[in-house]
Amino acid sequence: MVIGGSIRERVARPSNRAMAWFLGLGALLSVSLAHALWFGLDGADPGHGVELVRELGLSDLALFTEARYTRHLSLADSHAAFQDHPLALDHFPTASLAAPPEHLRNPHVAGD
Amino acid sequence: MIRLEQISKVFNQGRPNEFRAIHGLSLGIAADRVTLFTGPSGSGKTTLLSLVGCLARPTSGRIYLKGRMISALPERFLTDIRRSTFGFVFQRFNLIKGLSLIENVMLPAYPLGLPFPELRERAAGLLHGLGLGSKLENRVEWLSGGEAQRAAICRALINDPAILIADEPTANLDSALTREFLAIVEGLRGQGKGVIITSHDPLIAESAVMEAVIRMRDGRRVERMAMED
Amino acid sequence: MLQAIERQRYFIDYSLSSLARRRGKNLGLLTVYSLIVFLLASVMLFTQSLRQEAAAILKEAPEILVQRIAAGRQDLIPAAYLERMGSLRGVSEKRGRLWGYHFDPAIKANYTLMTADQHQLPPDGILIGAGIARARGLGAGDFLSLRGNDGKPAAFRVEGILPAETELISSDLILMAEPSLRAFFGIPDGLYTDLILKVSNPREVRKVAEKLTLLLPDTRPILREEILRTYDAIFNWREGVVFVLLMGALLAFVIFAWDKASGLSAEERQEIGILKAIGWETGDVIRMKFWEGGLISLSAFLLGYLLAYLHVFFADGFLFEPVLKGWATLYPAFRPRPVVDGLQLATLFFFSVFPYTLATLVPVWRAAITDPDSVMR
Prior knowledge:
The complex is a heterotrimer.
Chain A: H1 7-12, H2 14-39, H3 48-56, H4 68-71, H5 102-105
Chain B: E1 2-11, E2 19-29, E3 34-38, H1 45-52, E4 60-65, E5 68-69, H2 75-85, E6 86-89, H3 101-106, H4 116-129, H5 145-157, E7 163-167, H6 175-190, E8 194-198, H7 202-205, E9 212-217, E10 220-222
Parallel strand pairs in B: 3-8, 3-9, 6-7, 7-8
Antiparallel strand pairs in B: 1-2, 1-4, 4-5, 9-10
Chain C: H1 2-21, H2 23-58, E1 64-70, E2 73-75, E3 77-78, H3 80-84, E4 91-97, E5 99-104, E6 109-115, E7 125-128, H4 130-136, E8 143-147, E9 153-161, H5 167-170, E10 173-176, H6 178-185, E11 191-192, E12 194-199, H7 205-215, E13 219-223, H8 224-232, H9 236-262, H10 266-277, H11 282-313, H12 321-325, H13 342-368
Parallel strand pairs in C: 6-10, 7-9
Antiparallel strand pairs in C: 1-2, 1-12, 1-13, 3-11, 4-12, 5-6, 7-10, 8-9
């Protein structure tokens, strides 16, 4: 008459379900970490990008193409719009995402 | 054997609504018998029950359980004693809504960490014993009054306590169910367990099952009620 | 030991059953909670990946770039400056770069035109970045007509498209032979846009830069380490802005979660009373509530993080595209490569799991230290 711990009941027990849930999520997390290690920047070969940079002497990412001082972030000079004042809002939206280049924030030589 | 010596219980001490529920009460209760605390509402019988059952500590006085003074023990130990010695059936049964019947019955044993199959089997056994075997997985809010009470009794018995404590157990039951309850009490007595009940239900008070009756009025024990209701 | 585990499992059983009672509300909470973690984690993973990608690609950038400054603005630099600087110790290679911008009114896009001598392009031949090819619908063999410096349209034949995996740096590039570029922009021989210097020994870079400022006082050297730091700081600037924008959502959630977690209903209070009366210690009640908060917040953390991982590394962070794009027409299609920073992950874990769990515990503490006989009254 008494039903002790049949398989079905054990599965139905909330903590077992929770354990399955967290084991599943934990496994996915491990997969994501393994994926990051395997396909990440450390493991993967940097590809043609590096060659192109070396070949052409490129200095910047083509991430923000709307304005020249965001296209070539590292070459921007102090007269580019948003750098007149570091907190000034720019008329190009992406300029508000990127920081002024290092050589402007921290000039190593006089002359800027 | 439970012995109470010069017990007083004061609620809201030092505040304007201070209320003295028990006045210097001394008495002994046999642990293996059926004892009734009776008296009108406000007589202090429920407070007395919570003191005996280690739910509350007396403001002054001492309580001994099997010769060991328990009234001054810290909460941890008191809980331990309460769990192993007493099982509680509350007036409104106090089953936890949203949980299944068997989960409710297993609850008092959760902190003990027994193996799950063993605990579940024990709970199922108790429920089968009181005729609730077909409703193990039902939610408790679907139970009738009588079923809820039997479920509460099963829950009180899950840790195999020596004494069952019931506060106004028949307040919400009709006569037929009250008789059924008394039958259950008799059965427990047969198994060697003690039962302590508070009630002002004449059906209970007149029952042959009651072996000792302690009458209360205004926080004191009285020998005989002048006009018993 | 086993008994201790079994105990915790019982508390988990209880808290799950208890959560299941208000299934809709708790699932809603979990959804909003996961969404917040998702947004935070997406920003975190995306910027981290972009930073690392920039560092990996630009580590081959020239060690020193020399710009000529005239009247406070960058100006074309005479090739003679290469001779003027003479042979600097440590400089293994120096040459001029010739490049410029061209605005294409047809698609309202800015191109970056550059010379590429290595490719031996014919006078009217160009190589274009994949972004331009996509935006203008061009393939190898097609012609691209651009309005030159003299106002006349110049037609170029697309010789090839730069590899798609270099899009992050080449999306808007048009490479052509040097004479073609000079003719197109009208830049006379003997002038370059800027100069690049290769210095093999990194310790000599600063020395070289100092000598340059003395030798060529009207120039400004830009060091590779500065370029790298500029990109290392990319978004640091206003990663904050994104977080501030998220702050509103975050605050709304905090208020909601605080209310949900910290406000104990009369029902819950009574429930705690019952548990204590039937033999649970204060600690047991708190353990059970700890699991309740912990299970929700840990689930939200894992769900949000995993979704963010999928979003950034498998869906190319498509939600960020409009933000990064701004008004630009050309946007590089690139797949961020996965980078996971343990410290960042730990920080995200800490800030997503702990506050909520604590918020659930504080009020329970207060409720749980009440006497168990309250249920009898």
